[in-house]
Amino acid sequence: MTTLLLIEQVLNGLQSGIMLFLMAAGLTLIFGVMGLINLAHGSLYMIGAFAAAAVAGATGSFVLALGASLIAAAAAGAIIEIGVIRRLYDRDHLDQVLATFALILILSEGTRWAFGSFPLYLDVPAALAGPVTLPGGIQYPAYRLLIIGVGLAIAVGLFLLIARTRIGIQIRAGESDREMIAALGVDISKLYTLIFALGAALAGLAGALVGAIQSVQVGMGEPVLILAFVVIVIGGIGSIKGALVGALLVGLTDTLGGVLLPLALSGMMNASAATSVGSALASMSIYILMAVVLIFRPTGLYGTA
Amino acid sequence: MTFKQLLAATCVAALGAGAQADGVKVGMITTLSGGGAGLGIDVRDGFLLAVKGNDDIELVIEDDQRKPDIAVQLADKMIQSEKVDVMTGIIWSNLAIAVVPAATAQGKFYLSPNAGPSALAGKGCHQNYFNVSWQNDAFSEAAGTALSGEAGKVFLMAPNYPAGQDIMAGFKRTFQGEIAAEVYTKLGQTDYAAEIAQMRASDADQIYFFLPGGMGISFMKQYAGSGVDKPVSGPAFSFDQGILGAIGDAAVGAKNTAHWSKDLDVPGNAEFVAAFEAEYGRLPSIYAAQGFDTGLLLASAAAKADVDDADAFRAALKEADFQSVRGKFSFGANNHPVQDIYMREVIKEGDLVTNRIVGTAATDHSDPYAADCKL
Fold this sequence. Notes:
The structure holds 2 protein chains of 2 kinds. Chain A is mainly alpha-helical. The termini of chain A are far apart. In chain B, the strands form 2 sheets. In chain B, strands 6, 7, 8, 9, 10, 11, 12 and 13 form an 8-stranded mixed beta sheet that branches. In chain B, strands 2-1-3-4-5 form a 5-stranded parallel beta sheet, sandwiched between helices. In chain B, helix 3 runs parallel beside helix 4, helix 8 packs parallel to helix 9 and helix 11 packs across helix 12. At the A-B interface, helix 1, helix 4, helix 5, helix 10 and helix 11 of A face helix 2, strand 7, helix 7, helix 8 and helix 9 of B.
């Protein structure tokens, strides 16, 4: 394997990690602040992608489509929080899992009812359709660079929001003691709706960004949701920094494992056996990573007990 | 799920309110929700179109959600409490392997409208198992023959599950040339950046891949944006009508092999395409064509023999006395199809991305596993 190919694969790993971060950030915020396990987070990702595909189909504008994904997912998130989730804060996690699992089914079948069972068309804007040549002669799709840029910008924005703003202070306070900040006069239910909508909007944006290079279809959110849970467990539940580090770790492990393991095994066995054993091991690699992290840091990398 | 029961009830009602005692009761287990739902819905709709107005056939439809455990539960329920005579509908090879042997062992007939795993074609064949679609290797065996000589080195990619392995095995069996690399991806994988980077770095002249459903959409869009310009081809699953609209122009020019195409000039095909479009408001896919043929086959057997007389019914099925929308169709020794396979090319008709036939890839193709089948 050449160095160039390796660098390209590292970029791919970064990009997939950044996308996971957008999903995991919302999930970890919601869990950290509200103590809620939201299985329907993947459905919000799907809603973002469908809203983007519908608006892009109607207007032809990708920027409008991204805007629509943010608004649609945030609105759906706010409605879900007010209509369903609000009743679940005092219940145990099993009730929350049941209710949000029901939401997955309702949202999936609702989307199927509204848009049909066949995947929708959403493509990258023409200006970003081709590859760009990076220093060193690496050809890399322009759109994936945009994803990396947008993701990093959002990561910085979230850090600033949480560390420097009044809402950020309230969020951190809510994380450590929700009764206390309610007693201090913060409207906790409004804060919860806001956080839920923010997490939903990030998931929706991720769905729209990824939908342009993947397939926009019912059920697209669930595989990502599983990875996002792995990310927040590795990073430590409730920690945005943990979500970023965990997402990049998972993205890089997943991508590089799939490439390097078959290559490493090909020295030991024949080519087709190495391919199949290697790809089987690669699918396990992120879960092995999670297990190893949990052995040494039972609360995750940045989690607090 | 209430919606499903309602749907099934409606279908049954539509198919003849007074289900006759001597009719054939059919249990259809197919994928109607989740990521692979487009395929199951096409099979179901094609099947319903074929048996529309036929009072001999009573139908129960259930959704397997693409999960083997659910498919097995549904099959048990259909056999034990619904007492169906014939089962059909499964899309995915891993589900078929889980359900079919148990069903045929209990004396039920199974007609496969999709999925032809090699495990059920050779030693595991059964007199009550009829495959109306293809053995998994078929399209890629034809492609391997067609690409030999002209393609140069080929880069192979497929998901790591029974059908992916069968299809790559089929290609390698007939392809005379060099394989540059062989990559197996996760089933359901959505990001192919790592594989595309390998394609760019390899010295392959051509990419041959099998990625059904949403996986194919993701790959084709990412491949188009990557700037790698090696020609791509694959079995029709990666370029079928249900997903071409979502891939868009990125697919145009890709070659693919199939037993059917909407422009195939055989008796009944143009009528089928028109009727399907009129009924459902979309163009049929190969899955719809397979569902339609499965319905026709069942109706032809039900008209000839009573399903309670298993030997007569089996003989009636084996005759395959129906006008397939694929033209010639008959069953080989292992109850798998003997049929022609065509080379198709993705084209643009106005705004519509679709396929047209550019040649014949294999004539009277049958699968290589028949020799292992003791029927």
